[in-house]
Request: fold
Amino acid sequence: MELIAAVVRLQVQRSRLKPGPKATRVYDPAPLLEVDALEIGPAGVVGLVGDERVLDVHHADHPDTRNRGSNGLSLLPRAHYDRLRARFGDHLVDGVAGESLLLDTEGPWASLDGPLVLETADGGRLTLTDPVVAAPCVEFTRFCLGREPGRVDDELTAALEELDGGARGFYVTVSGTGRVERGARLLRP
Reply:
């Protein structure tokens, strides 16, 4: 097996990051919560903070679920934040894009091919398949640019294109269930 990454941050989205009516929505990272561990399974992720369990908004059982069947777990290399900060500014701190797992990699990923294997805290393994680009939304793009809601113009369209292609990470489908902690290894069979 080839080591391709190590987990350096785990987090959940407690609620929507783009609340409100469509015309006035802004990207608000306040619902993001860094956690000690994640329980990961096919329905999504549950964050663990001490004895508290925090359901991610992309979990199928969340009361306001944003789960579309293929977005329960998201991955983003830390190297992508270096590029985002260089282009858009220091307000793009690690984790602000909302990924479930922030990964330490040898560099950014232009693409992601599966299957992959993620180690669990008990020595087990989760199989991750069907990687899909986490496409940027208008609200996150405005957040990157430091802009308020308004009309979509050439600058916003260009930034949307820049943030596509995996710049915001990837969603994967999970087979199996397990607890994942910082330091877990992501492997390619």
